[in-house]
Amino acid sequence: MSSPVITRFAPSPTGFLHIGGARTALFNWAFARHTGGKMLLRIEDTDRERSTEAAITAILDGLTWLGLGWDGEAVSQFARAERHRAVANELLQRGKAYYCYCSPQELEAMRARAEAEKRPVRYDGTWRDRDPKDAPEGVKPVIRFKAPQEGETVIHDHAQGRVVIPNKDLDDLIILRSDGNPTYNLSVVVDDHDMGVTHIIRGVDHLTNAARQTQIYLAMGWQVPDMTHVPLIHGPDGAKLSKRHGALGVEAYRAMGYLPAALRNYLARLGWSHGDDEIFSTEQLVEWFSLDAIGKSAARFDFAKLENLNGHYIRHTPDAVLLKEFLAFLPHVEGGPEMLKALEGGRMAAFAKALPGLKERAKTLVELMTNAAFLFAVRPLALDDKARALLNDEGKAALRGVLPVLKAAADWQAPALEAAVKAHAEQAGLKLGKLAQPLRAALTGTSTSPGIFDVLEVLGRDEALARLADPL
RNA sequence: GCGCCCUUCGUCUAUCGGUUAGGACGACAGCCUUUCACGUUGUAAAGACGGGUUCGACUCCCGUAGGGCGCGCCA
Fold first, then answer.
1. Are residues A203 and A238 in the same domain?
2. CA gap A469, A451 in Å, rounded
3. A243 an active-site residue?
4. A264-322: pLDDT as tens digits
5. Are A59 and A11 in contact (CB under 8 A)?
6. Does ipTM surpass 0.90 in this model?
7. Distance in Å, residue A446 CA to nucleotide B39 C1'
8. Within 162-181 of chain A, which residues have Cβ less than 7 Å from strand B?
9. Phi, psi torsion values for A46, nearest 5 degrees
10. Are residues A99 and A169 located together in one domain of the fold?
11. Last residue of some domain: A210, A230, A250?
């Protein structure tokens, strides 16, 4: 029996959960679910300067909103520093690491020199074989990993294939700072090993780290986890994701009115595929997910496609579920709390009634909210330019014509109203559009809305008739 | 500069040596229609370039160009 799969998502809490991180989490999650394994969460908070509680909260919230639950408690990497130090010392003991007394200034100078001479920027190994007795007075040393200088390090990667890095291009990295704190590459290896991580799935920006980490695993005699480095997500212009396009926290996507299910579906299709399948449920994603189906090239983030998918999800989400999602969304958007108040203040029924018509024409929850505004408008309605144009003399005349018909309606339900208005139109020799548009303008203050008979019904007899009479 | 990686329609992708190179988003046009959407039909749209290998390359190899990532006492 093979050991159960354990993946991990390991963000550093220096900012929100951005879209690339979200996808990495999704892949880790999907793979763990697919294999019946676990996804662990580790917060890489060893940078005490930049790590914040707020960021941790944002990341946890983001994952939760996206529906990507993790197994067990989130692990703080910083809290494990003692263990990392112990391993650094063990490496020292084994002759796989050494003290280096170079000052940051010296290293800076070393780098500057290399750059000026157009040589590769690497630590030159000054203290690699030097006797610690030569150590300068009062300098606190760092511990460097004694990386192999010859041969090559091979990474067997599900997405990248077999990647070979010449060892001469990897220098002796610092694993323990002069203040006694471990650095990233050491901590990651120790934690992944201790946490029993079997599969590492992360961004390709870690590929070089993968080589260095592999060397540390080997030096410790530990088994190297299975690795997958997924390509990065770029902005629409092919360059790095900037704040302008996609480098937003997932909470920004929530505020833009995207559904978690739609975002999951969209993200899954960025760099991963299952034949020609475009729209699939999360259950299907879990069922189909495979590391080997992850591509190698970077993908550009395309809002148009996300929006299309989101529209699909909005249309296909059952009303009751969508209503819940919408209510949960409102606190996160401008004007949302006010609408929430209005809904809870008695407009909920009308909104729920209007929802089927509303959701057909919204690509985001923000659009849904905008399109629902007519429900909450107060008389006399403010008209937009198009609505005003529709209510010209001809429009008003049409309105005057139907008003009695509507007043006479015994049954204030869309089908009955439709029948009555259509009969009137026919009798008056008017095309339905000539009637419907002025009605819409007067009823909603705009030129677009759900079906006009639904609008009539949803508004209710009194309110509708009053709105129609207002412009006359 | 050094190392690694990438390159199929505008975008996301399928193809895993033999296809009229498929799908989706977007675009455009038509249909549907009370508006907007939805839906539907159709059109345009791609193998970066140059060499090999092969009976046959988008698929394999080499080179070129372009792009990305990495090269911290950050993670």
1. no
2. 20
3. yes
4. 999 999 999 999 999 999 999 999 999 999 999 999 999 999 999 999 999 999 999 99
5. yes
6. yes
7. 24
8. 163-166, 169, 171, 174, 177-179, 181
9. -75, -15
10. yes
11. A230
